[in-house]
Design a protein that fits this description.
FAD/NAD(P)-binding domain, 7-stranded mixed beta sheet
């Protein structure tokens, strides 16, 4: 990480915020050779476990971005829940509904736990390894747009400077300064529009705890003299536990080390001394809010800057990384002159409906109205209604793969599809006995025999792993390539 002086810098893309969203976008841009700069207001990467659950769809993305091995090495499976009552174990409960065999054609079937601080370290290492730049301790204080780009005014303890960029991406969190500078509002999911899912404050801490095993997610329901729940989850890959405790609305939460220990002792059968160390603590009130727009001219919103989730469903970090994955290849194609600038209009078109859907799911889970299961794994999310999804086949059965859907993995005729799709490029997949070989200049072509998930046909798979165009043969394929810029290659 660097803290170099920024007097004036010219880049193609300025990414504001070095959380999972900004770092993932930086990786995607760096591997395309895009000149991008990530700036972060904090003097270091954000601490704390925060979003610790990585869903299967995000694991697929991390495989493509080249960080899967590190993510796997840093984390572990989620433990089963152990319910405590009156100081005694009262039964186990799975925290997630299990996946069906071969669900959605993915090698990943369940969430993988990695504390967010560690995920950020892994993404940062990958980005800098690709030659990407991250500058810490730099706050964007103002933006000025014109027809050709954006000038961002940046301040630090060393003074002020400017960054001139063709595009800016706000990945600076729920209180995004960039979003405010663009004048984009947020609409809350609460009945009053405030975005408050529940007014009850929640304390979360990363702590060392004696007296609890690391094979369970320990749950202490409210009862007796306690007025709120507590859950204590071992953080995979560390010697820490994440302590989460809820409080009634209006409570003033003491988030000092002594306050954490007091709550722990009051809600468990263990003493305050069982909490032997605290690395990080925070307090929040669950919110759900969606930006009214995801774009203002040359400025895009991504991650928490665009949508704020309750953490209950484990959707926030994952939806955010997928924003980056959708936007990255589009920015690259436009900046290289391969695609028209109108391609960037499809970012909001595709991602805002998905974010709204995931916000609703997170809120229902927070309120106990839904379980963590198939929907939370995010493998079924797609863009069928997008202008980039062109399906030319007719009379398809309900379960058929269509344009806009995520292209599932499989190994057929010795070809693993995710290996064939890897990298920020398009792939033309021919499945089964199609009369003519499907080829496009400069586009990778793969052919396999008939396979049940794909049936037969021709599928043009986007750089983000979704089917852009699908047909029984190549009729109409050339017209589609002009829409996405493949004809310029």
């Amino acid at each position: 990480m660097t803290s170099q002086q920024l007097t004036h810098v010219d880049v193609d893309v300025l990414v504001v915020g070095a959380g999972p969203t900004g770092l993932a976008l930086g990786i995607d841009l760096a591997r395309q050779g895009v000149d991008a700069l990530v700036v972060e207001r904090g003097e270091g990467l954000a601490p704390g476990s925060r979003g610790k659950g990585i869903q299967p769809r995000t694991m697929e993305i991390f495989e493509d971005l080249g960080v899967l091995d590190a993510i796997r090495a840093a984390g572990g499976d989620y433990p089963v829940g152990l319910i405590w009552q009156d100081g005694k174990p009262a039964g186990e409960r799975p925290m997630f509904d299990p996946a069906e065999d071969g669900e959605a054609g993915s090698p990943f079937t369940a969430p993988w736990m990695v504390p967010q601080w560690r995920t950020q370290e892994i993404l940062h290492a990958r980005l800098t390894g690709l030659g990407g730049r991250v500058v810490l301790g730099r706050e964007v204080t103002a933006l000025h747009q014109d027809e050709d780009g954006v000038t961002a005014h940046v301040t630090s303890g060393e003074g002020a400077g400017t960054v001139r960029a063709r595009y800016v991406v706000a990945a600076d969190g729920g209180r995004s300064a960039v979003r405010r500078a663009t004048g984009i509002g947020m609409t809350g999911a609460g009945a009053d529009g405030s975005g408050v899912v529940a007014p009850d404050p929640i304390l979360v801490a990363d702590a060392r705890v004696d007296g609890l095993d690391r094979d369970h997610w320990h749950v202490f329901p409210p009862g007796g003299d306690t007025d709120g729940f507590m859950a204590v989850c071992p953080l995979a890959g560390t010697d820490l536990f994440q302590i989460v405790a809820g409080f009634p609305a209006g409570t003033t939460v003491d988030n000092s080390p002594d306050g954490v220990r007091k709550v722990f002792a009051a809600r468990s059968h263990l003493s305050a001394d069982a909490v032997t160390g605290i690395d990080w603590v925070s307090e929040f009130r669950p919110r759900a809010a969606l930006a009214d727009r995801f774009r203002s001219g040359r400025v895009f919103l991504a991650g928490d800057a665009a949508h704020i989730h309750s953490p209950a469903g484990g959707q926030g970090l994952n939806t955010s990384v997928q924003d980056a994955y959708n936007l990255g290849w589009k920015l690259g194609a436009v900046l290289r002159g391969e695609a028209p600038a109108s391609l960037l209009d499809t970012y909001e078109e595709e991602r805002r409906p998905v974010a709204a859907e995931m916000l609703g799911l997170s809120t229902r889970i927070h309120r106990g109205e839904a379980r963590r299961g198939r929907e939370t794994r995010q493998l079924g999310l797609g863009y069928r209604g997008s202008s980039l999804a062109v399906e030319t086949r007719t009379d398809l059965p309900d379960e058929a793969l269509r344009a806009g859907d995520r292209a599932p993995d499989a190994t057929v005729d010795g070809v693993r599809l995710f290996d064939a799709f890897r990298g920020p490029r398009w792939t033309l997949l021919t499945v089964g006995a199609v009369t003519e070989p499907a080829e496009l200049p400069g586009v990778r072509s793969v052919r396999i025999g008939s396979y049940e998930r794909y049936r037969t046909g021709v599928f043009l798979v986007r750089p983000d792993g979704h089917v852009g165009w699908a047909g029984a043969d190549t009729t109409g394929l050339r017209e589609y390539t002009a829409l996405v810029g493949l004809g310029a290659r």
